[in-house]
Amino acid sequence: MAMWIQAQQLQGEALHQMQALYGQHFPIEVRHYLAQWIECQLWDSVELDNPVEEAKAKRLLDNLVSELQRKAQLQGGEDGFLLKIKLGHYANQLKSTYDRCPLELVRCIKHILHSEQRLVREATNASSGGGGQAMDSLSQRHQQINQSFEELRLATQETENELRKLQHSQEYFIIQYQENMRMQAQLSSLSTLPPEERTQRETALQSKRTTVETWLTREASTLQKYRLDLSEQHQKTLGLLRKQQTLILDEELIQWKRRQQLSGNGGPHEGGLDVLQSWCEKLADLIWQNRQQIRRCEHLTQQLPLPGPMEELLSKLNSDITDIISALVTSTFIIEKQPPQVLKTQTKFAATVRLLVGGKLNVHMNPPQVKAVIVSEQQAKALLKNESTHR
C-alpha cells in the first residue's frame, strides 16, 4: 500500500500519466480499495511468456475477484450501497475479461505497478533537485499537446454545429422548392377553369410563386456560402490535426522509441506509452469525427447540387483526411516489447506489438489483420531503403 500512498501524491503531468494507466481493462477503484492486497502479491514471479504459468495467473485472478467480492460485502449503510454495487460489478467485469487469458491480467498489473514505481521515483528525483528542468520542459510539452487537443475539440464541435445548421437550412430550402414546383403544376392546370376564375387564381398563384422564387434564388446563394465557409473551417481543422499529429508521432513517439533503444543497452526503462496511446486515440477520434462531417457535407452536396467548386473542395478534403488517417494508423503500429538484441539459435524469444489507436479504431472499423515476419538485417535495410525512396 506504501506505493499507492506515494502515487496519490503525484502532481501535474506525473499524476496525469498515472491516471492514464487505468481504464476498463483495470479500474483505478480496484487499485485503490485493494491497494494493500495488490502490492503483497508476487506478480513478478509469474513468467508471462511461459504457458505453464497460466495456472498461477488463474489463481491470482480468482483471488483478486474473491477479494473484490469480500470488499463489496463489507460495505454497509446508505453511503456504502453504491460502492458495494460498483465493486461487485468490477469483480464480474475482471472475471469476464481475463478468465480465458489470466496472464494478460498479470501483464497489466505488472505494467501498472512498474509504471507507478517509475513515476514516483522520477517525482522524488525531481523534487530533490535532479532533473527538475527536464521535468518542467516535459510538463510544458504535454500541456501544449493537451491544450491543442482542447482547441481541436472546440473546432470540431463548431463545425458540427454549423453542419447541423446547414442541414436544417437545406431541408427547408428543399421544402420551399417542392412548394414552388407544386404551384407551377397548379398554374398549368388552371387552363380548364372559366376565364374570370382562372385570371383571379392565376394572379394570386403567380404573385406567391414570384415571392418563393426570389427567396429560393437568395437562399441558394446563402447555402453555397455556408458550404464554402464550412469547407474552409474543415481545412483549418485538418491543418491543426496535421500539426498535432506531427508533434505526437514525429517527436513524442520517436523519443519513446529512442528511450526503448537505450533501455535495451542498459539505459533507463522507457515510459509514457500509455500517455502516447491516449493521445493517439484522441487523434483517431477527432480525425474520424471530421471525416464523418466531410462525408455528410458530400451527401448534402449530392442531395442538392448548386453551381460552384464544392465537389472539388470536398474531394480534396476527403483525400487529405484519408492521408491523415493512413499516416496515423501506420505510424502507431509499434513493437512494444523488442526481442533480445543478440539472438541465439534454437532459442525462442518473445516480442509484443501494439496498435496505439486500436481501441478507438475498432469502434469505427474492423480490427486490422496482423502478420509478423522475421527478416534478416539485409532485408530490413532493403525495406528501409525502399520506404525512403517512396516518400
UniProtKB/TrEMBL annotation:
GO terms for molecular function: DNA binding; DNA-binding transcription factor activity. Transmembrane segments: none annotated. The keyword Signal does not apply. GO terms for biological process: signal transduction. Residues 2-126 form the STAT transcription factor protein interaction domain. This is STAT transcription factor protein interaction domain-containing protein. The keyword Repeat does not apply. Keywords: Coiled coil, Cytoplasm, DNA-binding, Nucleus, Phosphoprotein, SH2 domain, Transcription, Transcription regulation. One of its GO terms (cellular component) is nucleus. Residues 135-169 form a coiled coil. It is found in: Cytoplasm; Nucleus.
